[in-house]
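ingest -> validate -> predict -> emit
validate: passed (alphabet ok, no gaps, 165 aa)
predict: started
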Amino acid sequence: MRIAPSVRSIAIAIACAVAGLGVARAQHQHGHDHSMPASQPVDDRREFVKFPAPLVEHTLANMRDHLLALQEIQDHLGQGHFDVAARIAEARLGMSSLGLHGAHDVAPFMPQGMQDAGTAMHKAASRFAVTATDAGVTNDYKAALAGLAEVTATCVACHAGYKIK
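emit:
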């Protein structure tokens, strides 16, 4: 699917602005010293979770696909394609996606909190899929956007608490 250059430029500008605000908010909330030189390491308090090497790459690839799915969902919501956004959410992020991502292989290496965060994300994505489908009938996009925000909030929470590499 091709997006008009002007729409693409606007979307990129908005994404950069939102990402910049998110980083600024995260730094502010974590009390980082903004006067610290850029070469100094930031105190990373996330819990390190050790996976076997093949599962690290597998999991990182899954997370990149999750990001791609979120981008595709946002694109389709922006075009009013609620049914397509719902199908992507359920197939790639929702409870139906667990087999696709090999969740049963990775879960034994995750601490309970990380497992809970993953389950919360998959459940939120399935709820979003229902809400997005409903929005296709009612044309009420606000509930769909709120549902998508819930999905991304679970991603943010997990990445704020855990690291695998």
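Confidence is low (pLDDT under 50) at residues 1-34.
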